[in-house]
Design brief:
- The chain is α/β, with parallel strands linked by helices.
- It folds into three domains: 218 residues, FAD/NAD(P)-binding domain (3-Layer(bba) Sandwich); 197 residues; 431 residues, Alpha/Beta hydrolase fold, catalytic domain (Rossmann fold, 3-Layer(aba) Sandwich).
- 31% of the residues lie in helices and 18% in strands.
- Strands 21-22-24-23-25-28-29-30-31-32 form a ten-stranded mixed β-sheet, sandwiched between helices. Strands 8-7-16-17-18-15-19 form a seven-stranded mixed β-sheet.
- A hairpin with a 5-residue loop joins strand 11 and strand 12.
- Helix 8 packs across helix 9, helix 23 crosses helix 28 and helix 24 packs across helix 25.
């Protein structure tokens, strides 16, 4: 009876506020509970200081860490177990350290003997030997302070490191050039503030614990993430159980304790949610702000003692920020303001808004080529010099991105408050977690989050840290379960009338962070010549049973477009600037020196969705390639039927080649344009490609037409790269009629399913079989690319599909026919993956893998040389769970059926399609 009662109750609801390391650890610690857990993070990503940023150079892209960079297994035992069990690999790294004056007069490094000496003349300078003496003395005697307590009073216990060094008569050079930089660097503090406020006993205990006082006898092996710390974030997200929910980009403003023992959170959008327990995994000051006037006296006393410092971080490749002498250039390079430098010049850094730091006259530059084993300049595969500078004293000339971090300050007040942390537990159903509960590092934050999870569910911290418990989504079965769950959820989603669906899925959303989005239009030409040439090709390709509507029924219209490109030197949460769209486009074009332009068409069955809903593809393509993406807002069925969407993408293509007078962008050569798209957008990209191929067959006079007053022809683009193409609009090939539990699509598109709700635009008037066109037209070559037999003359084509897609056979037919026509084809299929899985399953490794291949294909097309040999056609299957490569041979051989059988099936299936009127009894399927 008790068991029945227990399981009949609703699951306990827990909210975690903050998606940094403490929030992640707490969420993981609750993984085996039956609680419903929600994590809220104001930023659009998880990780906090674990922030990997793409660095592009020399045709390569590397994810570079800009916050949390290194760890070692001895000092980070719980966190090391976490990443190991998630299958995340780390690499041994060089943890050398150097300190230099900004003018290079005095400097030393730890990489080697001569790195430490700096220059030969230092061997004859007394100050240098006094520095050596004090280093040895400090390392040998400093721990005495930890054993003097019985003879010392409270005031001595809180003695600052600066006071300690003065009392012990250490030399100024030891203080300035050795110890204080070692304090300031990891905590990103101003050296003067560090000397004044950092408790000596706390520092020496930390240095002893981390073996910084016995580096000659106990050398730690430091490690880093070769592919960035985001690898552990991605692995963690893949393993989340279905009861755990992430709310990224949702800021929590207030916490309210309710009389019924529940706690309410109020988000920045005004949404109120109630929970049984709330964990504030944020900085102490932020927790105080969220509690507002409901904070208890104990909470105010303890939390108010913890402060943070602001740190400006810049990812760049400017070597002038490194020490002047090459021998002093190591992994961690600390630069001190020279006493001879003018203080006014010292802060002459041009920073983005809100990018002010508390660093004072001190900066640290990490050599990420060393720390992440990124090939150095001149080596094969090198993106160039990769540097990360904290609190730069002069603005790096080649800055790629700017970031703002907050680090916990360790002061006498915070050290005393740590002894009173137990008072926070009296808050009942509100808990606190953060790296500020320790030394401020990743391990401290991780343990704090686990500890809160332990307190909520009970248990032992050591059990929570067992490595084998971390392994989720690492097996094929785990991935298959996730795919099936997501697909069933999508298939069971309620249907909306098409007008409501279009409105809901066409909403624009503002951009955030390092991306430019400029919304504009390609102007419709006054002369209908472009429509005339399109219809001439449509008639050339029609069969005797195809009925083509008059041209006048397809009006020429302006075409909406989002220009997308990388935006540098802004924090990840930077809002979209409130400037005119033309100014955004101008800034985008100025920043993006890559001539490649990707003409992208979104998915949505040709009757719903818009560019903003497919930014998971378009924005990532822009970031990974460094190129401009022109994402088209084409007209939607059923109000706009074939060939209106193809006319829109055709106008967009012509507008890129031949901008109309007054256009705010330059002309793009055809060999720098790549056609791309998802699903229905891939259908349009293939349709445009087939149209352009037919244009090449026309006599020059017939292939020339007027476009905005110019006499133009349409050359072929550099290539085509599509994902999950809807190539068989007849839905006739074998894969369409599989069981379908592991795809998001049904045997019919929802708008054609019996029982779909009707509205003013659907069913059509007069009724027809499909939203896009009548059934008899579905096998036209510009409607269903799988009906195209000849692709001769096409530029390289790149395809990617999930093996579980209903439409995979249509894609195979197109790829096979193109390869048979002599086109250079690359075919990629992903084992176990459904239709458009990069949109719906962004956390899986297959998504990242596909996006990287997609971006690389677009880049390779635009770099192809005229007359160069085309790449060898290849077909590849990428296996679950980790994208192991299996060669399938030549794409010619991947077609599911002979082409004559394909055409026969398409025509026969069209004949069985019912006219859709919304009444159930008229449907045969």
């Amino acid at each position: 009876l008790n068991m029945t009662t227990r399981h009949s109750r609703p699951p306990k609801r827990v909210a975690i506020v903050g998606g940094g390391i403490s929030g992640i650890a707490c969420l993981w610690g609750l993984r085996d509970s039956d609680y419903e857990v929600h994590l809220y993070e104001a930023d659009g990503r998880l990780g906090g200081h674990a922030n990997s940023v793409p660095f592009r150079g020399n045709g390569t892209v590397r994810d570079v860490d800009t916050g949390f960079v290194i760890l070692n297994e001895e000092s980070y035992p719980h966190f090391s177990a976490f990443i190991k069990a998630h299958g995340v690999e780390t690499i041994a790294t060089d943890m050398s350290f150097s300190v230099s004056d900004s003018d290079g007069f005095r400097q030393w490094g730890s990489a080697s003997f001569w790195s430490f000496v700096g220059c030969f003349s230092n061997l004859f300078r007394p100050w240098f030997w006094r520095l050596v003496f004090d280093i040895v003395r400090f390392n040998y005697f400093a721990t005495d302070i930890l054993h003097e307590k019985p003879e010392r009073g409270k005031s001595d216990e809180l003695e600052s490191i600066g006071e300690y060094l003065t009392r012990q008569q250490y030399s100024p050079q030891f203080k300035r050039y050795y110890l204080i930089p070692m304090v300031a660097a990891p905590w990103c503090l101003d050296p003067e503030e560090a000397a004044r406020t950092f408790p000596a006993e706390t520092l020496i205990r930390f240095m002893s614990k981390h073996h910084l006082l016995d580096t000659l006898t106990h050398k730690l092996q430091w490690r880093s993430f070769s592919n960035g710390s985001k690898t552990y974030i991605d692995a963690f997200v893949r393993g989340l159980p279905k009861e755990h929910h992430l709310h990224l980009g949702i800021a929590v403003q207030r916490i309210t304790r309710n009389p019924d023992s529940c706690v309410s959170i109020i988000t920045g959008t005004g949404v109120v949610e109630s929970f049984d327990h709330v964990v504030l995994a944020v900085h102490a000051k932020i927790a105080l702000q969220m509690l507002g006037d409901e904070v208890s006296a104990e909470e105010d006393d303890v939390l108010g003692a913890f402060e943070t410092s602001r740190t400006v971080c810049v990812l760049h490749s400017d070597e002038t920020v490194l020490p002047k002498r090459p021998s002093a250039r190591v992994s961690w390079n600390c630069i001190l303001r020279s006493p001879r430098s003018c203080r006014d010049d010292f802060h002459s850094v041009t920073r983005p808004p809100r990018m002010t730091s508390d660093g004072g006259g001190f900066s640290v530059t990490y050599d990420m080529n060393r720390l992440q084993a990124i090939p150095s300049p001149g080596e094969e595969g090198s993106p160039g010099r990769v540097l990360v500078t904290m609190n730069p004293m002069t603005a790096p000339c080649q800055a790629r991105s700017w970031h703002l971090y907050h680090h916990p300050k360790i002061t006498s007040k915070s050290v005393q408050a740590l002894k009173r942390l137990h008072l926070l537990k009296s808050g009942g159903n509100v808990s606190f977690a953060g790296a500020w509960m320790g030394y401020g590092f990743h391990e401290d934050g991780f343990v704090a989050g686990l500890q809160v999870a332990k307190e909520i569910i009970g248990g032992d911290l050591r059990r929570l840290a067992e490595p084998q418990a971390y392994s989720r989504m690492a097996s094929i079965d785990d991935q298959k379960k996730l795919v099936k769950r997501i697909c069933q959820k999508y298939q069971n989603s309620p249907w909306l009338p098409l007008s409501q669906l279009q409105k809901a899925t066409s909403l624009d959303t503002p951009a955030r962070g390092g991306i430019w989005i400029s919304r504009t239009t390609f102007s419709a030409p006054f002369n209908p010549a472009i429509r005339n040439v399109l219809f001439s090709v449509i008639h050339r390709l029609k069969k005797e049973y195809h009925h083509i509507s008059p041209e006048e029924e397809t009006p020429i219209a302006d075409v909406g477009v989002e220009f997308i490109g990388p935006r540098s030197q802004v924090p990840d949460d930077a809002p979209e600037p409130d400037i005119p769209e033309e100014d955004k486009l101008r800034a985008l074009l100025q920043e993006c020196d890559n001539r490649l332009t990707i003409l992208y068409a979104h998915g949505g069955g040709l009757y719903f969705s818009g560019p903003a809903q497919y930014r998971a593809s378009s924005v990532r393509l822009a970031r990974l390639t460094g190129a401009r993406v022109a994402s088209i807002k084409y007209r939607l069925a059923p109000s706009h039927t074939f060939p209106a969407p193809i006319l829109d993408i055709l106008i967009a293509y012509a507008s890129l080649l031949y901008p109309p007078p007054g256009a705010p962008y330059p002309a793009i050569p055809a060999n720098q344009i790549v056609l791309a798209g998802n699903s229905a957008g891939a259908n349009l990209a293939l349709g445009l490609m087939k149209f352009l191929l037919e244009m090449q067959k026309l006599p020059p006079l017939d292939a020339t037409f007027d476009f905005h007053g110019q006499s133009v022809t349409l050359p072929l683009p550099a290539g085509l790269a599509i994902v999950s193409g809807w190539c068989d609009q007849c839905d006739s090939l074998p894969s369409w009629h599989c069981k379908g539990e592991t795809d998001i699509l049904n045997v019919l598109q929802p708008a054609c399913m019996p029982g779909h709700p009707t509205d003013s635009i659907w069913p059509a008037s007069p009724p027809r079989e499909a939203p896009y066109c009548v059934a008899a037209l579905l096998d036209h070559e510009l409607v269903s690319p799988a009906a195209v037999e000849d692709w001769t003359g096409a530029p390289p084509m790149w395809f990617a599909c999930g093996c579980e897609e209903r439409g995979v056979d249509g894609n195979r037919v197109v790829a096979s026919r193109a390869a048979k026509s002599g086109v250079s084809v690359v075919w990629n299929e992903y084992e176990g993956m459904p239709h458009e899985f990069p949109i719906f399953l962004g956390a899986l490794p297959q998504t990242k893998h596909l996006l990287q291949l997609w971006a690389a294909a677009c880049q390779s097309f635009s770099r192809g040389k005229v007359g160069a040999a085309a790449p060898k056609p290849v077909a590849v299957r990428w296996l679950m769970p980790d994208c192991k490569r299996v060669e399938l041979g030549n794409p010619v051989d991947i077609a599911p059926l002979p082409f004559a059988e394909v055409k026969k099936k398409m025509k026969a299936y069209n004949a069985t399609r019912p006219v859709w009127t919304g009444r159930l009894h008229e449907h045969k399927l």
